[in-house]
Specification:
The complex is a heterodimer of chains A (114) and B (112). Chain A is 0% helix and 49% strand. Chain A has strands at residues 5-7, 10-13, 19-24, 31-37, 44-50, 53-57, 65-68, 75-79, 88-95, 104-105, 109-113. The chains are: A mainly beta (114), B mainly beta (112).
């Protein structure tokens, strides 16, 4: 197993454009999390999936953000009409089982909005 | 609401012991994590406490007091490679599962 992978690793986009990130979790992991992290802060929870079901979404997440996990394997996070405040590292993590506590993080996608 | 407090920065000497404290407030507490994060890298799991007491794992130990909303991470025999951010995080039960709330992290500098 190669661990959690994320693509792209870096993305530079102009304000107003849409971007989509992909996360491939560890193969047998059924839980998948998205976080956003800015410099000097801890990861901020965005949303999580158990299999293909999106069970929780942060109230801080505006309607410009959407996430999917259509087949319960990989997940995508889309940001529409990007703003400079969206510049951050977007981290994906996966975990095994329904009560597993240890999350395995991917390397992240660094988004820069100019 | 949820709140996690930990010191912003700490400095310690190679070979010494350092204790990083964390206090938290949450509604559906279901355990506390410590993660290590080197600059530019993803967090890596260090420990998980759900019951009161001390959990030891090699040079790292983690303590939890649920009644006080308090935890600490103890690092012994510090090495230069331990210079990193240490994230305290609380597992909160929500809806049909759990979510993890992270503190801002404590940046540890280990000097020779």
């Amino acid at each position: 197993d190669t661990g959690v992978s994320q693509n792209p690793r870096h993305k530079i986009t102009k304000r107003g454009q849409n971007v989509t990130f992909r996360c491939d979790p560890i193969s047998e992991h059924n839980r998948l999390y998205w976080y956003r992290q800015t410099l000097g802060q801890g990861p901020e929870f965005l949303t999580y999936f158990q299999n293909e079901a999106q069970l929780e979404k942060s109230r801080l997440l505006s309607d410009r953000f959407s996430a999917e996990r259509p087949k319960g394997s990989f997940s995508t996070l889309e940001i529409q009409r990007t703003e400079q405040g969206d510049s951050a590292m977007y981290l994906c993590a996966s975990a095994l089982g329904t009560s597993a506590y240890e999350q395995y993080f991917g390397p992240g996608t660094r988004l820069t909005v100019t | 609401g949820q709140n996690i407090d930990q010191p912003t920065e700490m400095t310690a000497t190679e070979g010494a012991i350092v204790q990083i404290n964390c206090t938290y407030q949450t509604s559906g507490f279901n355990g506390l994590f410590w993660y290590q994060q080197h600059a530019g890298e993803a967090p890596t799991f260090l420990s998980y406490n759900v019951l009161d007491g001390l959990e030891e794992k090699g040079r790292f130990s983690s303590f939890l007091s649920r009644s006080k909303g308090y935890s600490y991470l103890l690092l012994k025999e510090l090495q230069m490679k331990d210079s990193a951010s240490y994230l305290c995080a609380v597992r909160d039960q929500v809806g049909g599962g759990f979510k993890t709330i992270f503190g801002a992290g404590t940046r540890l500098f280990v000097k020779a």
